[in-house]
Structures are given as C-alpha cells and as structure tokens.
C-alpha cells in the first residue's frame, strides 16, 4: 500500500493540530499504517493539493479539495471521538 | 529545553464581565500584556484569529473556548484562565455559522509551534471531564483553581512562585 499523506491543520498550526496530530500518530502506530503526517496551518493546505490523501482539521474550510476532509473537533471535546477515529481509519485503509 | 509554562493566580481571572468575545479577549490579553508575557500585537492578532478560526468548544457541562494566535506575538508561553460571570457567545470551532455560550476561557499564549503536546493533551483531558470544568466554574478562590489545574496539567518547572 502506498504511503498516504495526511494533513493535520488548524488555524495557527500551534495548539489544536498538535493534539490531533498526537492522536493520529497513536492510531497509526496501533494499526501499523504507513502514513506521512504533516502538521500545518489551514492556510497552507493549498501547497499540498497534489500530494495529500486526506485533510484532518479543526478549522473550518470552505474550499473544495481533491481529497476528503474530516472535522477533528471531537478530539478536543471528547464527544464522538471514536466515530471520528473510525472515519479516519477508513480513509487510511483505502 | 526549557518548557515551563507561566501559570499562577495572576493569570486566572474570575467573575469576568464582558459583553462580547472581543471584550473577553481584550481583558485577558491586557492582563498578559501588563505582565510582559505577550507583545502589544498579541491582542489584535488574537481577535483577528478568533474571527477567522473560532475556538469555542461544545464541551460537556459547560462550553469552553481556547483562543490563541501566532507564536511571534508571545514573549513567554502562558496559559490564562478566565471564568465569565455570564456566558459570552463564541463561534464553534470548525463551523462558520454556529455560536456557543462560553463560560470558561483558556487563553493559550504559545511561543513555539507544534510544541507542548503533553500539556495540550492534558488540557483537552480537562475539557473532557465535566466534573473538573464545573469545579472551575464554581470556584471562587484562584489558588484553588491553580492547585486543581496543576494537579491535572504538567506545566513543567513552575515559575512565578514567591
């Protein structure tokens, strides 16, 4: 399976994406996935449209991207985290 | 690497009164500015960031917000806690329409991108524990809030002690 590039983005690239990145890193390890995690600001997503396979973000995004976008707010509130994890895993295992 | 985060009673604001989220951010930002923890540019940057990328979180029991902005506006990393007397509407993170009545604000002044993972994870842990949030909401003593959060969060070597 080709290595997937996953973008993890928030507004500032400082706080929330750090937490989400940590959670996905754990998932990747647990499931032995081959994933390239890139933590960025949402404004930088445009630079990755040709390479990314998935965007996981806590910031809203109006734009259409050629890859799926998953909202990661549940990693912060703890409400609905398991569903979000499942959604991400599904994409990564594709 | 020195990784201590400034946190003590001086950055805990209780019974805050504010009519808007901007006023909340100004008051909390002013307090950090008066202690030279942030630069003057911090407050406008914080307000602009909140407008663009809202940080309200629909946490269990009571909603919180975690405003923050770019690292260059920060002098010294700090976490400031503000408890509002009456709820103030903040935009919901990741949503461009919805707002949520927030009572507790955790202002994050971070001086380095992609750092403080453990502290931030612990902070999200606090958000996910309704009981802790309710204790902060009800508490009238800053030292008790400080102790409660120091128990839950690893601030590194604490400074600002007498």
Notes on the structure:
The complex is a heterodimer of chains A (94) and B (162). Chain A has 94 residues and is of the alpha/beta class. Chain A has one domain (4-92): Rossmann fold. In chain A, 33% of the residues lie in helices and 22% in strands. Chain A contains three helices and four strands, in the order βαβββαα. Chain A has helices at 16-30, 74-77, 81-92; strands spanning 4-10, 35-41, 54-57, 69-71. In chain A, β1, α1 (16-30) and β2 (35-41) form a beta-alpha-beta unit. Helices cover 35% and strands 22% of the residues of chain B. A five-stranded mixed beta sheet of chain B has the order 1-4-5-3-2. Chain B is globular, with a radius of gyration of 14 Å. Chains A and B meet through α1 and α2 of A and α3 of B.
How many helical stretches of chain A? Answer: 3
Q: First CA to last CA of chain A: what distance?
A: 9 Å
Task: Provide the β-strand percentage band of chain B.
Answer: 15-25%
Report the end-to-end length of chain B measured between terminal Cα atoms.
Answer: 24 Å
Please state roughly what percent of the residues of chain A sit in beta strands, choosing from under 5%, 5-15%, 15-25%, 25-35%, 35-45% or over 45%.
Answer: 15-25%
Number of strands of chain B: 5
Oligomeric state of the chains? heterodimer
Poorly predicted regions of chain A are none
Mean pLDDT of chain A: 90
The level of helicity of chain B is: 25-40%
Report the top-level CATH class of chain B: Alpha Beta
Gyration radius of chain B (Cα, Å) is: 14 Å
Number of distinct beta strands of chain A:
4
Number of domains of chain A: 1
The CATH architecture of chain B can be given as 3-Layer(aba) Sandwich
Shape of chain A: globular
Poorly predicted runs of chain B: 158-162
Major beta sheet summary of chain B? 5 strands, mixed
Q: What is the third-level CATH name, the topology of chain B?
A: Mannitol-specific EII, Chain A
Structural class of chain B: alpha/beta
């Amino acid at each position: 399976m080709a290595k997937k590039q996953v973008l993890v983005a928030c507004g500032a690239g400082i706080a929330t994406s750090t937490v989400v990145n940590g959670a996905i890193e754990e998932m990747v390890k647990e499931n032995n996935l081959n994933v390239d995690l890139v933590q960025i600001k949402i404004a930088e997503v445009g630079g990755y449209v040709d390479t990314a396979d998935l965007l996981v973000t806590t910031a809203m995004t109006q734009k259409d991207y050629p890859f799926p976008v998953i909202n990661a707010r549940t990693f912060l509130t703890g409400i609905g985290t398991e569903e979000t994890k499942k959604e991400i895993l599904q994409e990564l295992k594709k | 690497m020195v990784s201590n985060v400034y946190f003590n009673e001086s950055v805990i604001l209780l019974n805050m009164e504010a009519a808007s989220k901007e006023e909340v951010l100004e008051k909390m930002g002013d307090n950090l500015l008066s202690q030279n923890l942030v630069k003057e540019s911090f407050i406008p940057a914080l307000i602009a960031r909140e407008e663009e990328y809202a940080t309200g979180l629909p946490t269990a029991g009571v909603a919180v917000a975690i405003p923050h902005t770019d690292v260059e506006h920060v002098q010294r990393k700090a976490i400031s806690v503000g408890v509002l007397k009456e709820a103030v509407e903040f935009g919901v993170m990741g949503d461009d329409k919805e707002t949520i009545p927030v009572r507790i604000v955790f202002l994050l002044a971070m001086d380095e991108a992609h750092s403080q993972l453990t502290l931030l994870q612990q902070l999200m842990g606090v958000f996910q524990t309704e009981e802790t949030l309710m204790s902060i909401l009800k508490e009238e003593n800053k030292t008790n809030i400080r102790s409660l959060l120091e128990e839950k969060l690893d601030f590194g070597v604490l400074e600002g002690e007498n």
